[in-house]
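Hi R.,

Here's the input for the sodium ion complex you asked about:
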Amino acid sequence: PKRVRTRHFQNAKREGIKITGLTSYDMLTARIFDEAGIDFLLVGDSAGNNVLGYDTTLPVTVDDLIPLTRAVAGAVRRAFVVADMPFGSYENGPEDALHTAVRFMKETGAHAVKLEGGERSRKQIHRIVQAGIPVMGHIGYTPQSEHGLGGHLIQGRGEGLDQLLADAVAVEDAGAFAVVLEMVPADAAKLVTERIGIPTISVGAGPHTDGQLLVWTDWAGLTTGRIPKFVKQYADLAGILSSAAREWVADVDSGAYPGPEHSYE
Ligand code: KIV
Ligand code: NA
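And here is the predicted structure with sodium ion in place:
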């Protein structure tokens, strides 16, 4: 299959073909999603919640994400792999941001990086893009600034719409090839999508964007506990694994496993 590149994103917006993305944190899911035709895989710092067992993304480090990103990038043949830059790895300025982006590109085989923030991250995005590394922006609700935003709250409502538009324009002007809109009202996302030339990717931003992205563990029902309203669950992996585990315990208990077919002569 022909590799997805940044121009695929641009063409998709122009031709009205929707872009699809899922997070992935390991080789097995990356291979499955790649073969199923998902356009891009984000090795998100949501690995903090979904792999590493943290409550937020704040403690996640570059060193945590490098091996996961390398596993995903090594597994795909077609999908575009985006490395998420964790909290603390770019806020200090453009040179820090470039240093982090270069580490991901050299050490993992990812095809692009993503960082949070519109106007506040414009210099960082510009510096990374200047170095020849594609950048995906991320505006609206930005989990790394949960405490600054005052919680897990919808962005771009009311007076927040002006800030959302300014952030979208800043990300485009800085040279990003696409931008994630997280948890913003559908009509605000529609406005942003019409206003800027780069594709918009919705995660909880309604149907009017150029693409859709979900956290795979939410989408596949592996996450137990609270799932955001915008997630549609396409499987019940937690249920499947739980009954498999119970069945296996019972089989070992009863002697039904292992049978002769599972044993060596
Ligand atoms: O880390 C992540 O999974 C993300 C997406 C939800 C946008 O940044
Ligand atoms: Na993230």
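One thing worth noting: The chain has eleven helices and eight strands.

Cheers,
M.
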